[in-house]
Specification:
Elements (H helix, E strand, L loop, with lengths): L2 E3 L15 H6 L5 H25 L5 E5 L9 H15 L3 E4 L5 H12 L3 E6 L13 E5 L2 H10 L3 E4 L4 H15 L8 E4 L1 H16 L6 H4 L2 E4 L2 H11 L23
Parallel strand pairs: 2-3, 2-6, 3-4, 4-5, 6-7, 7-8
Antiparallel strand pairs: 1-5
Length: 260
């Protein structure tokens, strides 16, 4: 089940040689006895969803921020992420991250500086990953797909800094959810034009040129290096549950960030 943890404490270390719950779930099933064990895992998965929903249901407007875990605080990208989270927090938005090091830490640090809610949704990995000290509300998940649901369901926008495969996964999953009408009024910002330009050029010159996507799909994303431009884009595009702080609401519908 998803567990809330005190600020700054590490997630539970994995027992050496013991597979993670995701590994067990994705193992091929060769015996009827193992099939039965898979069926019982449904209850553990259900428990993670329930605890995650209960923990975050009253969070309010929030932005999920993603990026590499392999970046130190002396990196300019780290500092840019701190500033991005700070200006979003000062605009009245909570910050959600994966709760670990690198850009996750930077985003939680910026949230702390702004005095907004700083959430970390950590995950069981084959190696121990501590929860960074700037997380105020820490959750621990065993299943990636449950954790990813929390990132989308309780955020009204994504900000994505340079990162690796996990960051790419979050980017393209969010675009797929928007493209297929699963989420609405959900801005996606790519921070760091030097990093993202090559990918976006390929998307435009190959995927778009061959008709695999439409121009409207490309328009879903803002590429920028300016935290204030990103903040303004998010604030102007998203639907504010209960109305935008200090301004008018874009509508009465509350957008949860996920269907259902």
């Amino acid at each position: 089940m998803a567990h809330r943890r005190p600020r700054g404490t590490p997630v539970q270390p994995r027992t050496p040689g013991r597979p993670t719950e995701d590994e067990r779930l994705l193992e091929s099933v060769e015996e009827a006895q193992e099939l039965g064990k898979d069926a019982w895992r449904i209850f553990r998965i259900m428990g993670e969803f329930v605890e995650g929903f209960e923990a975050l249901s009253e969070l309010g407007p929030a932005v999920s921020i993603f990026g590499s875990a392999r970046v130190g605080e002396d990196d300019p990208e780290y500092q840019a992420c701190v500033e991005m989270a700070r200006v979003l927090g000062e605009a009245g938005l909570a910050i959600i991250t994966g709760g670990g090091p690198g850009m996750m830490e930077a985003a939680n640090r910026g949230a702390r500086a702004a005095g907004t809610i700083s959430v970390g949704c950590n995950i069981e990995l084959p190696f121990e990953q501590g929860t960074n000290p700037y997380v105020d509300d820490a959750l621990y998940f065993r299943y990636f797909f449950v954790r990813k649901t929390m990132f989308v369901k309780y955020a009204q926008a994504f900000v994505i800094f340079p990162g690796g495969f996990g960051t790419m996964d979050e980017l393209f999953e969010s675009l797929t959810l928007i493209q297929t009408g699963k989420v609405y009024d959900f801005p996606v910002v790519l921070m760091g034009t030097d990093y993202w330009d090559g990918l976006w050029e390929w998307v435009r010159d190959t995927m778009l040129a061959e008709g695999k996507i439409s121009q409207e799909d490309l328009d879903l994303v803002l590429l920028t290096d300016d935290p204030e431009e990103a903040r303004d884009h998010i604030v102007d595009s998203m639907c504010w549950p209960g109305g935008r702080p200090g301004g008018s609401s874009r509508g009465d519908e509350v957008v949860s960030g996920a269907d259902g």
